[in-house]
């Protein structure tokens, strides 16, 4: 029988050995009550062997295939034996003290499904990336990140419920996942945590923002800012999110996102010479309609 832990820290590695090692070097955890799981998610080289050799207290799981963000985390969930699971991007810097603050808050509130810390950008002036999300418009499928790109002057230091979690850092109880279900794998990349948030809320849980804990995120290290890959999945998955989570205004949302937002993005990027970005938008729309 596997040892039971208070906490399982799960991170997914995809061709990101440098970032993953930086995360592990900074994470001073106690192996007696915390397990750290790294899922090597189809990296071109077997980076699991390197991690296992360098960090004997870390449990590394190798998938020969890239399972996507949700699939990689779900593989980690299936091997985790902690009461609490902390999902964290490998391109982050986090202290165990901050994770402990999240655990303490969640222990006092049974109705919390997912708890997220404050997230600040790692580079530059380290402005706020995440301090909660506003609710999403039912037609435009748009919402706003509270405090996004603002200097952290204490204006976002009130804990409380929020509309959606942020996938870069999430604390969840293992028994909550057993009740609600694993992360939805149909997205592959982007929107998984938003859909998971909706699944949690449909089961009576709240999404919670806890600013006493802070992590630092090296944004877009794996896919690149405004890359064709990112554009494709954001385009397709926004439509998929509506299909899975909206009924009353679904048709209006499709019309707005395809005929207005999609058309504008295609024209704008074509005129700016960003042909691959424009094509990625087209492909995202076509693949959603086909599938």
Write structural notes for this entry.
The strands form two sheets. A five-stranded mixed sheet has the order 3-2-1-4-9. The mean pLDDT is 95. The chain has helices spanning 17-26, 47-54, 68-79, 96-107, 174-180, 192-202, 228-245, 250-271, 275-290, and strands spanning 5-13, 34-41, 58-63, 82-88, 92-93, 112-121, 128-130, 160-162, 169-173, 206-217. Strand 6 and strand 7 (128-130) form a beta hairpin. It is globular. It is α/β, with parallel strands linked by helices.
Structure characteristics:
single chain, alpha/beta, five-stranded mixed β-sheet, 22% strand
Please report the total strand number as a whole number.
10
The parts where pLDDT drops under 50 for at least 5 residues are none
Question: What shape does the CA trace take?
Answer: globular
Question: What structural class is derived from the secondary structure elements?
Answer: alpha/beta
Number of helical stretches of at least 4 residues: 9
Measured between the Cα atoms of the first and last residue, the distance is 42 Å
Please tell me the overall pLDDT: 95
Report the major sheet: 5 strands, mixed
Quaternary class: single chain
User: Roughly what fraction of the amino acids lie in strands?
Assistant: 15-25%
Helical proportion, percent range? 25-40%
